[in-house]
Amino acid sequence: MNILLVGGRQRTRLLTKALKARDYHVRVINEDFDWCKTLADEYEVETVCGDGTDPSLLKEAAADKMDMVAALDDRDAFNLLVCEIAKKQFHSKKTFAIVNDPKNEAFFEDLGVDKCVSVTRFLADMIEQEAIADNICKYLPVADGRVAVCEVPINSESAVLNSKLWEIALPPQSIIGCIIRNGQTMIPQGNTQLKAGDHAVVLSSAESADEVTAILSGKKKK
Fold it and tell me: Which has the closest alpha carbon to 39: 16, 62, 18?
């Protein structure tokens, strides 16, 4: 696979290392000549020094022959412009952009960027997951056999269908830590509703596992 990395510094270095380890063909565009030289020597990649939004440089870097063009800079406007030029002028197969301001994510997608990653949103999700884990540890003992993790499907007959999480009377030593919906994972809030087809991933004490499963999968009373 041929991948062009445009802009960025540390994340570009780390991604170059990871992609080279998988035998991908990597080419880099960056404005810093010394950094380009260092990267080329360190990882044996081809580099082009200059402004990644310059079509002539993208042409020199063979953007038209790349399987993916990835814009990795700290400037959202720069990343969007790189992807726009790569897509519209060079017909790159795939474009990828780092989105530093999560408010811009939908805008990037609307303008045709194939894949966007919001660093801020990613970090926020990680912090939230960590907070959930901390709350679980406050209430549940951590030891072999005393904590159960189970995945409970929610169907159209479930008694908790369309219920908000705060409305569901789960045992004290249990929590719905994740919901799998349409193949995507989401960290729920108290107002998150359970929908048909969801899979609720629950952490509970071993003693409460059966009760939790029964509550979530139980059928509606006729």
Answer: 16
